[in-house]
Amino acid sequence: MATTEAKAAPRERANQRPELAALDDATLREALRRMHLIRKFEEEAENSYMRGLIHGTMHLSIGQEASAVGTCLPLQPDDYILSTHRGHGHCIAKGAEPGMMFAEFFGKETGYCRGRGGSMHIADVEGGNLGANGIVGGGLPIAAGVGLSIKMQKNNRVCVVFFGDGASNEGAFHEALNMAAIWKLPVVFVCENNQYGMSMAIERASAVPNVADRAVAYAMPGVTIDGNDLPLVAATAREAVDRARRGEGPSLIECKTYRIRGHSKSDRNLYRTKEEIELWRSRCPIRRLEDELVGHDRFDRGTLEAIEAAANTEIAEAIEFAKASPDPDISELTRDVYAN
Amino acid sequence: MPTDIQPAGGEVRELSYAEAIREALGQAMEADERVFLFGEDVGVYGGAFGVSGDLVHRFGTERVIDTPISELGIAGVAVGAAITGMRPVLEIQFSDFVTLAMEQIVNQAAKIRFMFGGKATVPMVVRLPGGSGTGAAAQHSQSLEAWFAHVPGLKVIQPSTPHDAKGMLLSALDDPNPVLIFEHKLLYKMKGLVPTDAYRVPIGKAAVRREGSDLTIVGTSLMSLKAEAAAARLAEEGIAAEVIDLRTIRPIDFDTVAASVRKTGRLLIVYEGVKTMGIGAEISAMIAESDVFDFLDAPILRLGGADMPLPYNPQLEKAAVPQEDDIVAAARRLKREE
Ligand SMILES: Cc1ncc(C[n+]2csc(CCOP(=O)(O)OP(=O)(O)O)c2C)c(N)n1
Ligand SMILES: [Mg+2]
């Protein structure tokens, strides 16, 4: 995403916290647009599922929009991300086309993976998204490999890898962070700690309270932040991305957040309370940013509503595109198993 | 009727495949305090496919243990517990994730007894939901059982009915060796008759599901059910297919297959795993190497998964694994061959 940073904070931003003042209006507008796109994408994905348009399962990221969008704000178009099973948000945050995402979801030939991958495998290779992943923690060591490749090719790119709190208990997490650290790779490890790995609360799954506490073991910077605070996520990510680009090595960022929906469509939420879900619903990262912006007179309500409405229209068009798209041809069943 | 629905004592009623497994687990845990269940989300969530259900409420969190997402680690925990006197039952949430646990299962569990000169045993049970048909795509739909059948020291079973799911799980818990149970995800909701008793169905014994004289269809797991349905259709056109549910793929019950092929002279093998280097290749080779070869009236046919990762799109997904129509068509072809 193209971002413009304030060279010097303009006067009207003087009383704003630095993380917010650092973001100019165009950047904020784009960040809001992407957060709304994600929210609406997820809501419509859910509706499509209910109406039987989607055959597999899906993992929705409603409530986690700020960590996806904030992290991707400082990235250049040719930087890389690696995503997770809960990856729709990352994909949109990196600039993917919602239409091609819905098409993938509906198993259509026009989808990002030509209908072969589905929700859990959406990849936008040209846009720098090296894929969602059906395997928890699967992207972490790949990120180390991408970092090594960037370093060897000296192309000055950065790789961000998203993963969940649950993924941090896979051996792959430790192996990846260690290699990234010893080789000083340009990788930013972003843990979206939504406090549960499926039904397993982080306190039951990990002996240390914060995933970022583990950074010490790999001698890399580790910070735990409020992942529903977009300006804070963006500022933290910028620091880690800049550090990686300067060749100073990897960082670990832990965004504390919450998934409002169940883990997947078969979740009955037996492991958490309604009150807890409601509490986090009130911490909506989108409304929170909007309120702050209005409070500082950065945008008026009308402008914000227009941004949201435009995102809704974009999603509605995306669904129409996907619905009207053709299914794959069965005669091409085994295409693309090998490269020629 | 399966040959082994013997009056096991107690009444017989209808249970789903998932319920039958849960009943076996509950009975085993009641009978033997060494037995415990662990895995990802097996506790209050009740298991990703609802198999463990209420067991955590009946047996507590010390015997029904939610683990972190650490497949290699939990497989190792099973090995460690098994070699020191416990009877762990490990659920791998989707069989695909066993790829992360290969080291402990293949290098440790399978070999410890042999390497230690017979001085240790590894009585662990691993339950693995597998198979396609749920739109879960390439990393959540595989049928990897043949990989493990290639590893001496392991036993690999694939019950296809609620009755066998219960009885074979109880046999697996009696077994002093590591036993892997591949459960097809589409079977969990299927119903069948299950006795209330803690009966056993032997490991290493195939079941003749339907008798016939024209050809033999050997199927595994869900494919043996599809083969039965296909055989019923074939009967209407005058083709008498004998259907064998292999049930165990290591050790394979070659005697049952051989006896059938001696009678019919024609063999079709159906399995969902990728056809190449699969179960069908092994059975074909066993026939070719034995006197049964002389009884063949036609070349052996295999129907297996297409040589590809499982696709997401539902039509492609269906086309990638054998369907009932494919079995009917292959059987007709086989019957015509001389
Ligand atoms: C290796 C592996 N183990 C288990 C699973 C099943 N599974 C998918 S997502 C998930 C929870 C992951 O938790 P976390 O990493 O915190 O991500 P979140 O779902 O909370 O976004 C589990 C257990 C899997 N896909 N891959
Ligand atoms: Mg989580």
Total beta strand runs of chain A: 7
Catalogue the unreliable spans of chain B: none
According to CATH, the homologous superfamily of chain A is Thiamin diphosphate (ThDP)-binding fold, Pyr/PP domains
Helix content of chain A: 40-55%
CATH architecture label of the largest domain in chain B? 3-Layer(aba) Sandwich
Bound molecules: thiamine diphosphate, magnesium ion
**At CATH's second level, what is the architecture of chain A?**
3-Layer(aba) Sandwich
Please estimate the helix content of chain B. Answer: 25-40%
CATH class descriptor of chain A: Alpha Beta
* Biggest β-sheet: strands ordered side by side in the sheet of chain A: 1-2-3-7-6
What is the N-to-C succession of helices and strands of chain B? EHEHEHEHHEHEHEEEEHEEHEHEHH
**Greatest chain-chain interface?**
A-B, 44 and 37 residues
- Please give the largest β-sheet of chain A: 5 strands, parallel
Beta-strand portion of chain A reads 5-15%
Query: From the structure provided, what is the oligomeric state, counting identical versus distinct chains?
Result: heterodimer
